[in-house]
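Chapter review: from sequence to fold.
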Amino acid sequence: MKSLVTGANGQLGRVTVEEIESRGIDVLPTDIPELPVEDLGLVQAFFSQHRPTHVLHCGALTDVDGCELNPDLANTINGVGTSNVAAAAKQVGAVLLYVSTDFVFDGQG
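The token string follows.
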């Protein structure tokens, strides 16, 4: 088993990496420098090279006010980036877990 964590430099990503490591599971922590999620070609190449079996997608712009002020950037990272990670995970047959908040999905829809 090989887990890939996006957004590993963020609050959720750091905790996720620590938890995976504490269980003795092989983990590949990534963030923007290693894996710019907005670039589908780079994401697919990275996944093809590293062949994760599990992907925990913790990478996102999380500043709600900042996202509202810059919706294009928020959509590029949080929307397009997430779509790219999902497509690359599917390409290599990896299980994908994506964490969101009630600011995005309140569970009622």
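Two observations follow directly from the output. The two ends are 33 Å apart (CA to CA). The chain has a mean pLDDT of 92.
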